[in-house]
Amino acid sequence: MKQFGLFASLLLLGSTLFGQAGVYDRDFKRPPSIDLDHLDSVKEVRISETWAGAMSREPIKKPGFLDIVAVLDTAQRLVSFDQYNPTASEVTDSYQFLYATDGKVRIEQVYSSTPKSHQWILRDSLLQEVKLLKGTKKKLKAHWIYTYRDDTLITSIVKYDKNGYVKYQYDYEYSEENQLTRKTIAERGKPTRWLEATYDDEGNLVGYRNDDDRKSQSGSQVAIVRDSSDQVSFVSYQSRRGENLRWEYEYNEAELLVKATLINAEGKEERCIEYLYDTEGNEVRKTIIEKKKEKQRRDLEYDEKGNVTAVRYYRRFMGNLDLTFYYFYTYDEAGRLIKKDYWNKDYGQRKRWDYEYVLY
Predict the structure, then answer these.
(1) Count of alpha carbons within 13 angstroms of residue 317, beta-carbon side
(2) Using the 8-state DSSP alphabet, how is residue 302 labeled?
(3) Sequential DSSP letters for 259-281
(4) Which residues contact 77 (CB under 8 A, 6 or more apart)?
(5) Is the pLDDT at 295 greater than 70, yes or no?
(6) Residue 70: which residues within 8 A CB-CB, separation 6 or more?
(7) Beta partners for residue 72, in sequence order
(8) What is the end-to-end Cα distance of the chain in Å, rounded?
(9) By three-state DSSP, how is residue 57 classified?
(10) Three-state SS for 190?
């Protein structure tokens, strides 16, 4: 069962902090994410991007620019994530080494900034031919590295800029029960944000505090209250403006969230979010309601295997709820995402991402 946004990110402490529940994330300030479902024996995920005008009737056919290369280890954990500038490249020089071992010819290619002429060299008692190759390569925009503990819990995510300098670092600490207790975010080597989580004796998340050195306000304190069934009953916290707010939650008989209501300090409803599900428990609609009117809506469709095939976003404009943008998803027989199409009415833009997989 796949559910998009079942809780506000306020509550999804585990999945949102780790960033493992999305297909694509353009925000470089956050760790990028790859959908890790159905990726058994996958070594690399290579994503290419193509775009066209939203009003163009011509289908997107041209091969896209290589935009992302994500590398997974044998445990199918994300270990690195490279994002390239999709429209820029730079001239490079590389050496190609050809040498024989055990009767088999192997080829290695190494990039270099100090080109030399064609030559023969001897290394490890093996004759090698070195050829200078002229060409181009994509400009690296950002590089992410993921590290884990032996028990697969993530311990850090580091973002490097195009020059190889650390820009952001996310560090994670855990209790003896392997519960996330602290997350630290550093920018250019200086810690600027912290999140500390607390749990009850049953291991349920009951609250956390979020501090930010970049803002003059004090950190926000969040309290989570559960009912007798261990379902989240309400969440109280303080907004950046100092207001005491509260989210209240309602569930159906299948214990799926059906309504989340934001209550202000005066006890009045400011906003509510309603969820609908199909017979399989998949979320098919999320509606944001303000002042008793639908403000935004998201509709989801699934195939017979439970994979999301379409997501449509609607927004109220000039009194009408209009389709603003949508995504269409295509999968291979193994259930891996191979294509994602995007259309945005406001920006007059169409995009497509093609996914290729390198197996171990």
Answers:
(1) 8
(2) E
(3) EEEEE-TTS-EEEEEEEEE-TTS
(4) 146, 148, 152
(5) yes
(6) 32, 34, 44, 45, 46, 47, 78, 80, 81, 82
(7) 78
(8) 27
(9) coil
(10) strand
Higher pLDDT pick, 318 / 26: 318
pLDDT over 70 (residue 17):
no
Task: Tell me the pLDDT band of 64, cut-offs 50, 70 and 90.
Answer: low
Q: 110-163: per-residue pLDDT in tens?
A: 555 444 444 444 445 444 555 555 666 667 788 889 999 877 788 999 999 888
pLDDT at 108 over 90: no
pTM given for the model: 0.71
d(C-alpha 349, C-alpha 131), whole Å: 43
Alpha-carbon span 61 to 28, nearest angstrom: 28
Tokens of 340: 């994602």
- Distance from C-alpha of 257 to C-alpha of 277, rounded to nearest angstrom: 10
The token pair at 211 is 């501090």
Would you state the structure tokens that stand for residue 35, as one six-digit string? Answer: 């959908």
Cα–Cα distance, 347 to 326 (Å, whole number): 13
